[in-house]
Amino acid sequence: MIHLITGGSASGKSAYAEQLVSEETEAANRIYLATMIKGRDSENADRIQKHRERRAGMDFRTVECPVRLQDLEIPKGAAILLEDLPNLLANEMFSPAGSGEDALPSVLDGLRHLMKQAGNLYIVTGEVFAESLTAYDAMTLRYLEVLGEIHRMLGEKADTVTEVVYGIPVKIKEYTK
Hints:
The protein is α/β, with parallel strands linked by helices. The protein has a single domain, classed as 3-Layer(aba) Sandwich (Rossmann fold), CATH 3.40.50.300. It contains five helices and seven strands, in the order βαβαββααβαββ. Strands 3-2-4-5-1-6-7 form a seven-stranded mixed sheet, with helices on both faces. The chain is globular.
């Protein structure tokens, strides 16, 4: 099962995803797949700490993997919470360890790899398309274009898509048995 969870900045999407995974899966199988690169700035450090504190007691095993998800081995059937897709893509496109111009196929290969291994895959992503695109440089526009392509692919493939608006989860696409 693939559940794509989206929302704007500080919308509550991460808290919703963490709570959802802790309610729907067995504690022994929970993996929090962190994509943020540590040490960039104090804002990132604060965000990482906030996420750690919020999920304390939820029995997640944290695995840090900011690039190359296709190289990651996880226990078969695990419940994976990928936090978050925009960070992963930025790391692949712009960090020295990333795949640069080959970021799109690298991210897609990594997601397919996770889908094969996971029992349930929860992917947190962000809505970054609401603003006017005229103010961005070519590199940022390319990032947004690639993120949009990944969103479309995941939206089609996902069993469930939820947008979190003001802390309220709104089902866009819902899996029915």
